[in-house]
Amino acid sequence: MSANLINLLIDATWQTLYMVAVSAALGTVFGLPLGVFLATSQRGELLSRPLINKVLGLVVNAARSVPFIILVVAIIPFTRMVAGTSIGTTAAIVPLTIAAVPFIARLIENAIREVDSGLIEAARAMGATPLQIIRKVLIPEALPSITLGLTLAVVSLIGYSAMVGAVGGEGLGDLGIRYGYQRFMPEVMAIVVVILIVLVQLVQTIGEWFAARVDKRAPKGRGQ
Amino acid sequence: MSDRKIQGASIVFQSVGKAFAKPGGGMVSAVDDVSLTVDAGAITGIIGRSGAGKSTMLRMVNGLERPTSGKILVGGQDVGAAQGTALRAIRRDVGMVFQHFNLLASRTVAGNIALPLEVAGVPGARIKARVADLIHRVGLDAQADRYPAELSGGQKQRVGIARALATEPKVLLSDEATSALDPETTQTVLELLKDINRELGLTILLITHEMAVVRDIASHVAVIEGGRIVEAGKTYDVFTAPQHPTTRSFLSGLTGVTLPAFIKGKISDTRPARPCDEVIHVTFAGKHATDPMLALLTRDLGLQVNILSGAIEEIGDQPFGNLLISLDADRAAEARAYLERHGLLTQGLGYVG
Ligand SMILES: Nc1ncnc2c1ncn2[C@@H]1O[C@H](COP(=O)(O)OP(=O)(O)OP(=O)(O)O)[C@@H](O)[C@H]1O
Ligand SMILES: [Mg+2]
């Protein structure tokens, strides 16, 4: 294999990592508060804003039902507005983030809902404010699930990032299509697939390791 | 121990009612026109069956539920009317322990106990000192850095109690704190609550469905049934002279009041024609509790008395006893009059023969 090709693979790997890392980070920045709000704003709950909860829930569902490749194309004007261009790796971060936010929000919402309501009750009995309950009880208690949820989100983003070649985003997926498919170099396609498998395995392993570290519940089995 | 003695607060329920909206529409009444005064510095038990409204009553004391009618005053402050910051300030004065502990799995013992102090905005250095004190008080020095998953039920409840005491409350609420514990651990946790009450002087209001818990630590008791208080008073008085059938049925679970199986099968309410014995429940109380009454009965009336079951117990530091005896039905009235004259309570349960 030529040195040129190896350089291309290295560059593409970095581009993928860059897109996934930035969109996952931005997705968490926006998805975490959204998820916490969705989990705590139904009627009678901590923040009880049933109307806003309904509306946000609908928006999240709508965003999640659009296939990613269509989302990428549909929001091109918005991407241009935010990133200054609608073409390239940095521009690709915009649709990736927009796909990540509702996905991560739902994962966080589920993680927060799993927290035993007795803990909220105990915190209320202490005189905690809703914000204190979220910061000191809900998020720390949900952290093992949140970590696993974010791991899943990153793995999905690696998959999505392969599709952004359609709007000139680069990265491993784009390289695989251009060389492996269009230029008929199946070995490039094979290497790209292997790198993607290794990346996903790595993310999964690191995610699970973190989740286990922050999980202080019963060490073996999840009986209780 | 740096705990200063605090003045416990009284809790007053004034015609308190609480109704919940039913999912299908309409209301279900959980607590109905309850008036009760819980003395400052005392340990008061509320006993009732499942669904009687115990938890609802307790949860109104720290504003976790709001009454739909009436008022609840804690140390003179109207909890039901308090909102926001004022309500949170009241809650810091009222600690609560739970049946299922409700500890944060993500925090160590020390971290759990620190939480109410963090919530109250106490500076870090003071939190550390206070937490160390509390851990010592509940006897968990060796477990300070353990996580709840590594503790036994009794140890978890000690953490729960320490956490409830962190903000130096004037009232401690306990919702079935010992119901998830084995009998031995229950005793040690009750002892801890008793010590805390004695040393710190705070008011303890606990709910339970076990008369033994009331007997062991409560100086006052209220019996709740269907959302209403059916009987209330000093534990000793309620135990020795229960008025309401619900109270009696709770008491029948205690030793000395249950008919042994061999009698239960044979006893009848109506007196048979043939010679027979009457079964009598005798309650010893007050200064006569330890008198040798049966010996005197035999000596003065020349009666033969069969003992079926019995026990002497202590409430606070006063002894009281329950005894089931049987004796010749022809002379039962005479024997009961004799015992009553000597300050005992008697109740005819039926005939065997
Ligand atoms: N949040 C609620 N919504 C609707 N009904 C409720 C609610 N909380 C309690 N109830 C009802 O009020 C009644 C009293 O409940 P409560 O929990 O106070 O009983 P309890 O005496 O504590 O029972 P247990 O011993 O089972 O804990 C029950 O009929 C219960 O179904
Ligand atoms: Mg209850």
From TrEMBL, chain A:
Biological source species: Pseudooceanicola spongiae
Name of this protein: Methionine ABC transporter permease MetI
Family in the record: Belongs to the binding-protein-dependent transport system permease family. CysTW subfamily.
Segments crossing the lipid bilayer: 17-39, 51-76, 82-105, 142-168, 188-212
Matches recorded under Gene3D superfamilies: MetI-like
Domain ABC transmembrane type-1: from-to ranges: 13-204
SUPFAM superfamilies: MetI-like
Keyword Transport: yes
Keyword Coiled coil annotated: no
Originating gene: metI
NCBIfam families: PRK10782.1
Superkingdom assignment: Bacteria
Membrane topology type: Multi-pass membrane protein
From TrEMBL, chain B:
GO BP of this protein: amino acid transport
Family to which the UniProt record says this protein belongs: Belongs to the ABC transporter superfamily.
SMART domains with a match to the protein in the record: AAA (SM00382), NIL (SM00930)
Protein name as catalogued: Cell division ATP-binding protein FtsE
Single GO term (MF): ATP binding
Domain ABC transporter: 11-251
Summary of the function given for this chain in its UniProt record: Part of the ABC transporter FtsEX involved in cellular division. Important for assembly or stability of the septal ring.
